[in-house]
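User: two proteins, same treatment. go.

Assistant:
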Amino acid sequence: MKGKITILAILMMVFSGLSFGQMIEPTKWKVEFSKKDVKVGDELDVVFKATIDKTWHVYSNDFDADLGPILITFEFAANSSYERVGEVKPVNAHKKYDEVWDGEVSYFENEGELRQTIKVKELPLHVAGTFEYQTCSDETGQCVMGDDEFDLKIGEAKEKATVAVASSDSNDKESKKGLWAIFIAAFVGGLLAIVTPCVFPMIPMTVSYFMHSGGGNKAKGRMNAFFYGFSIIAIYTVIGTILAVVMGPDFANFLSTHWVPNILFFLIFVIFAFSFFGMFEITMPSWMVNKSVANEDKGGFMGSFFMAFTLVLVSFSCTGPIVGSILVASAGGEVLMPIIGMLGFSLAFALPFTLFAIFPGWLNNLPKSGGWLNSVKVVLGFLELALGLKFLSVADQTYHWGILDREVYIAIWIVIFTLLGFYLLGKLMFAHDSPLKSISVPRLMLAIASFSFVVYMIPGMFGAPLKMLSGFTPPQATHDFNLSQIVRDNAGGGPVHKASHKAKYADFLHLPHGLEGYFDYDEALEASKREGKPIFVDFTGHGCVNCREMEANVWSDPAVLKRLQEDFIIVALYVDDKKKLPEEEWYVSEYDGKKKKTIGKQNADLQIRKYNVNAQPYYVLLDGEGNDLTTPTAYDLDVNKFVKFLDEGKANFKKKVTAQNNK
């Protein structure tokens, strides 16, 4: 999530379980051959499979590397037993336009797969090498670099495929949270479906059926009612199970990114909206409904089942869009998601029928059917029309058609919810609406909510971020007239500079806002001793989105910028820089036993060894001996907290200097 408010950012840091002394390892890799029985001349694949924690994503290798994110890269050790055929290719990568990087990026979510085709030249076959990748999370504001090894053999007594990658337990926790979220959303959808014109009038009919189905035996009637409710749940859950089997990860990726299903879903939502407005009726084939109704007369459990099946068929014209929305939302490649979604929907949907059948006296308190039911249907039509635009927007962004830019999208929503407000006030009528003599209080409250939402959206036409709608609207980069951007671009104030000096790596590494500093840890320690200032250490990365956000939103604040300019020695340690160091500067890490040959590898190793942290951004304040001056901090857009962090480190540094001078 971009541009979080302070409290939200703090809460996410707390609930994500990311403490400053904790390693973050959100990706687990498995490397294996695509087949084990091979002979000389055969071709097979080296398969790299990633399991990625929820809210995290790994960048792929099939987009422009100059955009900024770190692409996954592979190095294969030379070996006479094989030759590579082409390059490593992703299998199920997502693609999207990223407004932060101003271009199309390719990435993996939940799981990923890449393949390298090789040709066997001799046996035994031995394929080994290393790969590097970047994992980022928009929710927690962290980016993590990873580098791992693989060693695969065929033709020896024991075939092995090993890769050293660890994974945190947060994957299971986040998965459970996702299941609960889809269950609750589906349950609410089931409750909403009850008050549609296709369903609500059937409640009294159903109760009447079960009051007579037991032949005067209340216990038998209640048993049939329980089985009726169970049948509704079973029917919908079977639908979810079938979907789960059919929709694997590849098909889910196709649904979420390809223009064909997204345009199809958009048209389906529009068609249902027109139906809700009264333009035409959508019904199941009459032969199917009639056959189901005919079987109700069998009585007993069989009659209860066909009664439930008839309800599902007859209510399709109202429940179809709700069920479809749940299935689309839950079709993320996980087997349990569609099943849990349909379980939640059917549980809420079956609950009132079962309860009213068991306690028929409650019917006396039930509102009578009338014109209000059609009003519910029309309101759902407006919502279907608004939500359907999301599918068109996905296709538009993915294929860069330029049809539905951000201000066009917002303008359409403003019109839709304005018309909804007028409809709720009785100023707009449809063919099947009853005359509205007066406005009820609930209807007035809904109209106020609709018009308030419109007022909230209006600043979005001029570039306001509309954080509440960030998951629905197209990216701000598609906005033609962004007033806030124009103001920022034309605001006064020049770059801030420190005294010029020659720093190591300064010819290709730079600091933001005109600040000058260092890019080597040891050089910063020497400068601190020489100038008598504390050190501000910035563990960062070229492809770290949240590092750029901190620099743009926090570092740019005058209070922060003044302190960084005047009070600190700044050192930016890029953990993803690929610049290879002279061989005499290479060393073997005490942490993982691997040889560190590049600037990035050495900086990442320093962060892990010293702080047991491997995520960026990460900020540390040190004295000239490398001792901590205060508790390190990470991604947090609260400027006041960052100022306090800097001031506390500076004050502790002065205390240390004073104590040393008094000795």
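Protein 2:
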Amino acid sequence: MFNKILIANRGEIACRVIKSARKMGIQTVAIYSDADRQALHVQMADEAVHIGPPPANQSYIVIDKVMDAIRKTGAQAVHPGYGFLSENAKFAEALAAESVAFVGPPVGAIEKMGDKITSKKIAQEAGVSTVPGHMGLIADADEAVKISKEIGYPVMLKASAGGGGKGMRIAWNDEEAREGFQSSKNEAANSFGDDRIFIEKFITQPRHIEIQVLCDSHGNGIYLGERECSIQRRQQKVVEEAPSPFLDEATRKAMGEQAVALAQAVDYASAGTVEFIVDGDKNFYFLEMNTRLQVEHPVTELITGVDLVEQMIRVANGEKLTIAQADVKLNGWSIENRLYAEDPYRGFLPSIGRLTRYRPPFEVVEESHVVRNDTGVYEGGEISMYYDPMIAKLCTWAPTRGEAIEHMRNALDGFEVEGIGHNLPFLSAVMDHPIFIAGEMTTAFIEEQYPDGFEGVELPAEALQRIAAASAAMHRVAEIRRTRVSGRMDNHERRVGVEWVVSLQGEDYAMTIDADHDGSTIVFADGTEKRVTSSWTPGDQLADLDVDGEKLVLKVGKIPGGFRIRSRGADMKVHVRTPRQAELAKLMPEKVAPDTSKLLLCPMPGLIVNVAVQVGDEVQEGQALCTVEAMKMENILKAEKKGTVSKVNASAGDSLAVDDVIMEFE
């Protein structure tokens, strides 16, 4: 076995690999850029080597710099994680040239599966079900229209070297096929330096389901079940689960056997994933093969008990698989939520900055359930603008899907993140969405259910009543503490009443509190009673309560006259008042938001790439005003209406915070 492995990656996946290597008694080497000098993976590894400036194209993906780090440390093998150099055949060749093991598949498999046209042809030859389409070179837009008609609309035009949704268009008629061909071709050339386009049938109401395969270099191959990855945003997965709530055993077996056949057709040896698109009738079609470890691999580990990173290392060491297909048993259900540094209330724009508070839920490994959090950050650390926005992958496991979802809901409620925008509220909303609960989601789930973006959650009446009761009980605890303040003036003793009105999400709940040593009984005006018990004390930012025998986890912040409460995707101000205070509060005028209609505000922390207008310019609706870059994404800000630029406050190269004024208009 190897004595030392270098991890050619960063963030949570580097930390994940270190954990398995350490369990196996293998020393680890981290590499890091200037931006990652204090990163968690650097702290966890046995050694760390600096490889350059923050941009990945000057550090993490510069093969020569990684090779220098290998030579310097004497690492015998390299695990590439995912992204960066993980599917780079030239990197694998460079390692082989210096007799360093690549913890991944052979170069030939990477090359063959890395090209969509080549991979589809190999899949067809291996007997894998593929989407009807035209895989040859397409000369021009006229030929694209002719082919599209033969396949039958709708069709998908795709870049052969594509990924991440680039160079991809859907066409429903001749005109869209003509326009889409040219757009895809241009985008592919700009993004990948390869303008080859192919066309295939577009599957309506599709589900994205993938099969995990594991092969060794001795001809053995198995599949470890499937993962449901249909909940995506801009072709990026957000929620995954294993197994899929949609597949039956016969379909699972057919998909698994075809996935292994494809892997063995290219002499695959390592962990890999074969992705399929599945229609409503359980017809499945090959999409692509990822020749690396997937982001969502933990859900497979949780239902099979197989450590995929360990298996990759053993295969790279030349060992035979010790697991046969008959040994693979799918046990229970697992769900993964990807926690991103993206602000759901601002169109999921990237959010960067310091994590002023980062308190994930306690990790649990019990027979009844598991809570696992794969992360590469820590409280006080910084989310950089240079890399992808993933903060953590929160996973739960339980014997049934319903139990796994419930444990995930509670884990999300107990996950504290402050200092940046993040998608925790959105993830909570998905876990409670009836389509997700029913297991009936498609890849269009987010687009269809949140067409205008995410604006928070309106909780149902029963949930509001539970939170109102909990808030009243917490307020009483805080009031009791205030009565015990020393040094009071004589005859100014503070008394805590029993009648209160709790206001939240536009609802008022009048109630009385009957408190005792163990908790509080809340009696609402309609006679409903709620029993609340908790160990919460004023100042705690997380309240773990019991309301009528059911767990309730709230994130709690103090505001004048009440709390800021966050629960199940809702973020609300909760006021707890005496009846007289509540009566007077209704007479108070509403605070009007400031008028920002004549200002261009920066929607995210980022770097100004360029400013396209100057003072005095008349701009039209939809005209590009400037470009802001954050987390590898360029965002073009456009005029919402006609106007004249009166002031420009920023220029190219400036770093701005959220809501900084970029320019003003007359």
